[in-house]
């Protein structure tokens, strides 16, 4: 009896030792600068998983027609502005009544937009809209008057990979185009690119070029930058030159979840899964839109707190293509169904 | 489903063109294509939350997606 017990205990210990000593996937060291910092392995399979039922906030029926693709949303003054990059429209939603109006017409003149991809609020309640077709950063008042536009030649033309975030010293982060050595540019309010960061992962002239797409956010309070190569299951946190990489699939080979990093000729068409769809800070946590789920990482504790999966009234999982926080609310978007869901972040 | 759409996208001819936008919804997926002079970038979002992207250099999109006019 004692012998059997000891054998079982030994087996458990051995399994424990083997799993603990399992090495993380080495491809992560191909990511620029990662090996210079700390790597934290956070297998998402081991984190608490929670299903949250959400209600639809807006559908295409509320708009009265098919939406193109809602690419961004932000509280501007007392209203909420939405950008539809495909239809070339910016909508204003009154927060209380949910009444919808269109702000600008299509075109290249004043108070006109072509492919408005991103929007952020300024501290004075005005709004900045990034138009990827125009490669312009357009400044509007909260009532929709245009204050000016600055052209940024090296802006990425793909609105589905574009992002705009506030950065330090009254500058913005945006996604650079494919010809650049770096993925993220810093632009000031006059339209000058003042610096570049995050080296490209795949060299110019090789596939899979879509591994050179990034998402990012910056937290002014903690001076913390978060960024991710969208096809790699990791997020990198940078503060004052120090890097910490959060690795969410440390024991899964990349070729099981995405195109691997081996270089192919540019003539080859390589599909890259967009694994990290967005990263954003809220209070003391980092939120990661990871495939269709939301990961919440406690920055101070260095812990992955929860993985949220969102379901509808019937309990069926909702595919979420875009996710962001604005004014204490979490917005979830399914581009195929053209539904937008909304819930207070505090309800998570 | 996504692989079929990706295959359709691969059916492209080689030449150059100015910037154009194509969109289509079929087989549970929404496909967006941006064509510029160097080739085209494509992006597929499906109802099962899958989301993929690619770039075809030196090619002109010649599939079933509808062209949207950019003013």
Overview of the molecule:
The complex is a heterodimer of chains A (348) and B (71). Chain A has 348 residues and is mainly beta. Helix content of chain A is 8%, strand content 45%. The radius of gyration of chain A is 22 Å and the shape is globular. Residues 15-20 of chain A have low confidence and may be disordered. By secondary structure, chain B is mainly beta. Chain B is built from 1 helix and 5 strands. Chain B has one helix spanning 2-10; strands at 20-26, 29-36, 39-46, 51-57, 66-68. Chain B has a 5-stranded antiparallel sheet with strand order 4-3-2-1-5, covered by helices on one side. In chain B, a hairpin with a 2-residue loop joins β2 and β3 (39-46). The longest helix of chain B is centred in the first third of the chain and has 9 residues, at 2-10. The chains are: A mainly beta (348), B mainly beta (71). Chain A binds chain B through residues 68-69, 86, 88, 106-108, 114-115, 133, 157-161, 178, 207-210, 213, 266-267, 269-274, 277, 291-292, 317-321, 334-337, and chain B through 6, 9-10, 19, 21, 23, 25, 28-30, 32, 34, 36, 41, 43, 45-58, 68, 70-71. β24 (272-273) of chain A pairs antiparallel with β4 (51-57) of chain B, so a sheet runs across the interface.
The structure class of chain A reads mainly beta
Helix content of chain A: under 10%
Q: How many angstroms does the end-to-end distance of chain B come to?
A: 33 Å
Order of helices and strands of chain B: HEEEEE
Concise summary:
The complex is a heterodimer of chains A (348) and B (71). By secondary structure, chain A is mainly β.
Descriptive tags:
heterodimer; A: 348 residues; five-stranded mixed beta sheet; 3 helices; globular; B: 71 residues; mainly beta; five-stranded antiparallel beta sheet; 1 helix
Question: What layout of secondary structure does this protein have?
Answer:
The complex is a heterodimer of chains A (348) and B (71).
Chain A lengths: L1 H20 L16 E4 L7 E5 L2 E4 H4 L6 E7 L2 E6 L4 E6 L5 E3 L2 E2 L5 E2 L2 E6 L5 E5 L4 E5 L5 E6 L12 E4 L3 E5 L6 E6 L5 E7 L6 E2 L6 E6 L4 E6 L4 E6 L2 E6 L6 H4 L6 E2 L6 E2 L2 E7 L2 E6 L2 E6 L4 E9 L10 E5 L2 E6 L4 E6 L4
Parallel strand pairs in A: 1-22, 2-28, 8-9
Antiparallel strand pairs in A: 3-31, 4-5, 5-6, 6-7, 10-11, 11-12, 12-13, 14-15, 15-16, 16-17, 18-23, 19-20, 20-21, 21-22, 25-26, 26-27, 27-28, 29-30, 30-31
Chain B lengths: L1 H9 L9 E7 L2 E8 L2 E8 L4 E7 L8 E3 L3
Antiparallel strand pairs in B: 1-2, 1-5, 2-3, 3-4
